[in-house]
Amino acid sequence: MNCLEAQSKIMAFIENKLPDDELREFIKHVRSCKNCYEELDIYYTLIVGMKQLDESDNISTDFKNALDRHLDEEMNRLTTVKRIANSTIMVVIVLVVSGLIWLYSGVLDKVYNYEQTSKLSEQSEYYYQDFFGSRLLNDEEYDVSDIDKYYIEINTTQDETTDFMKRVHKYNLSHKGMNSL
Predict the structure, then answer these.
(1) If you average pLDDT over every residue of the chain, what do you get?
(2) Integer distance in angstroms from the first to the last C-alpha of the chain?
(3) Same domain, 7 and 79
(4) Is the pLDDT reported for residue 78 higher than 80?
(5) Same domain for 68 and 15?
(6) Rounded mean pLDDT, 101-128
(7) Vertex 112: Cα angle to 111 and 115 (nearest 5)
(8) Which regions span the lipid bilayer (predicted)?
């Protein structure tokens, strides 16, 4: 803000009609420019003194301190308004982020529960029921030798697979030269 703009806004400041965004610039300029401060002091003394005469109030003799107090009060009010606005914005942001996290965790929880339910429905009632059958929960029909039989059966299947792979490998080696003809 330059001196001409500041001097044109003196009356609006004294009458408290200056918008907040212009008020901050006006106060900063008046505090930094000695000529504009003196101009404001003169107008403030005249206008406020005349108002006090019209209202039959006690006439103040210390208009300079009254002007300084008025400038300080306005700057404090602007600072407070800015702090409240910033705090409100931060609270809204925190609430939005918290809400999004809450919704996201709820969705993840539903997806997890759905997946667990589908896994449980695909499995048999008891995980080892396929092997043990009805003997799973019946101690009288359960025999430890069944486990040994199961492992022998698995190893036999693996041995058959290994034997088959060895035979395929031998076949490939014996017919290696025939592919090039």
Answers:
(1) 81
(2) 95
(3) yes
(4) yes
(5) yes
(6) 80
(7) 85
(8) 84-104
- Within this chain, do residues 80 and 11 fall inside the same structural domain, yes or no? yes
Give the residue numbers spanning the domain of 146: 131-180
Question: Within 13 Å of residue 1, how many CA atoms lie on the same side as its CB?
Answer: 22
Contact 26, 18 (CB under 8 A): yes
Contact 52, 60 (CB under 8 A): yes
Per-residue pLDDT band for 142 (boundaries 50, 70, 90) equals: low
Annotate 12-66 with DSSP letters as a single string: HHHTT-S-HHHHHHHHHHHHH-HHHHHHHHHHHHHHHHHHHHHTTPPPPS-HHHH
Residues in the chain: 181
Kindly report the pTM of this predicted structure: 0.48
Q: Which of 26, 60, 87 is the last residue of a domain?
A: 87
Q: Domain for residue 117, yes or no?
A: no
